[in-house]
Amino acid sequence: MSMRKAAALALSAALLATPVYADGFAVYEWSARGVGMGGAMMFGDEASLIAYNPAAITQFDEKGTFSGAVTYIAPRGSADFLDGGDNVFLTQHNKNNPAYVPAFFHARRIQPNAWFGVGVYPRFGLKASYDPGWYGRFSNRSIEFLSVSFAPNVAWKIAPSLSMSVGAELMYAGLKLDKSTRLGGETPIDLDGDSWGVGWNVGLSWQATPRLSLAALYRSEVKQTVEGDVNLYGGLGQIATRGHGSIHLPESYTFGVGYRFSDRTRVEFNAIKTMWSSYKDLTINVTVPAPFRPFLGGLASYPYNEAKNWRDGWRYQFGIEHKINDRWTIRAGFVSDDCSSCDPDDADFMVPTGTRRTYTVGASCRVKNVEYSFGYGYMDVGDKRINGAGEKGEDAFTRGCDAHIVSIGARIDL
C-alpha cells in the first residue's frame, strides 16, 4: 500500500504543478513591445496581436507582417522557516534558474474582408529549482513546466469600425517534477510527462471614435490529460510506474480600453479575469506495477483524489507609448496581479509568489521595414505564507521575491 500511495502522491503532486504554475506564472511576455507596455498591447500594430487581440489584425494589408521576440525571465527569492511560533530558525534561497520565452507571429489580409493570422507562443510556463538539502523539498525540489500553443485565427469586419475574430488553439504541455514524500521515511519521487489539449477563442475590437478603442477577448479552458513516467526512490531502490490525470487550464476574459491623445502618444488599459475557481480538485490514476498487484487485491490502477481551494484572479495592465520621431518610440507600463493561490494551507513552493507588481520600460527603433524593440520589467512579489512546508512540517514565509524580465524582438513588414 505504501508503494501505491507514494506513486499516487508523486503523480498528483506533479500534475498539480500545472495550475499552480499558471496562477503565479501565466505567460504574457509575447512581445518586446508588449513587455515595455506592461502587457497592454490589445491596440498595438504588430502581428503579436494574435496573442493579445486577434480581432485587431484587420489593420494589416495583403503583404502582411511578421513579429517575434525572446524574453529572459530570472526569478529569485528567499524562504523563512518558522519554529512552533513565529520565530525564524532557517532562511534559504532558490537556485538561479532563468527561463527563456520565445514567440512568433504572422498576420495578413487574405480576402477583401477577411484576415488570417497564426502564432506559436507559450501561454503557461514555470521553471524553479532549489539546492540539495533544501528544507522545503517535501513541497518541491524542482519543477519545469512548458506549454507551446499553435494558434490560427481568422478575422473580419462586421462594420466599418468593428472587427471580430475566431481562433483555435492546439497546446502542447510538458512537465518535469522532483520532490520528496513522507512515506516510509523520506521517499524522493520524480515525474516526466506530457499532453496535448485543444481550446478556442473569440474576440471583438471596436474603434469607437478616432481616438477611443475598445476590445474584448474570451479564451476557453484547455483540458490536458497528462501521462507520464513516475519514479520512486526508496529502500528497495527505484520503482518505476506510469500514471495519468486530467486538468483544466481555466478560461479567461480580457477587456481593453485604448486612447490616442495624438498620432504620437497613446495609452492603454487591460483587465484579465482568470476563472481559477473552476479548479476544485484533481483525480489521478496511477498504474500499479504487475508484481505488486497480488498484494493490492489485483488493482491495475489506483485513483488518488486531492481537493484544492483556488479563487478567481484579476490582472491589470497599463501602458503608455510615445513616438519621438519616425524612427524612435519609447514606452512604460505597470502591471498588478492578484494571488489566486494564497490560502496558506494550499500554497506550496512550486509557485512561491504572492501578489505581484511589475514596472516596465521599453523602446523601439525602426530601420526601413524592420522595427527592433527592447523591453524591461521588474517584478516585485509580495510575501506568502506556506503552512506545513518544512522538513518536519514547519510553516514558512516566502519573502524578498522578485524577477527581472528582459525582452528583445522585431517586427518585419513585408
Find the CATH superfamily.
Answer: Outer membrane protein transport protein (OMPP1/FadL/TodX)
The major pleated sheet works out as:
14 strands, antiparallel, barrel
Give the ordered list of helices and strands: HHHEEEEEEEEEEEEEEEEEEEEE
Tally of individual helices: 3
Structural class: mainly beta
In terms of DSSP E residues, the strand content is over 45%
**Low-pLDDT segments, ≥5 res:** 1-23
- Give the tally of β-strands: 21
In what order do the strands lie side by side in the largest sheet?
Answer: 1-3-4-6-7-8-9-12-13-16-17-18-19-21
Percent in helix? under 10%
What would CATH call the class? Answer: Mainly Beta
Per the CATH scheme, the topology name is Porin
**Rg measurement, Å:** 23 Å
What would the principal axes of the Cα set say about the shape? globular
Per CATH, the architecture is: Beta Barrel
Output mean pLDDT.
Answer: 85
Question: Roughly how many Å apart are the termini?
Answer: 63 Å
Total domain units: 1
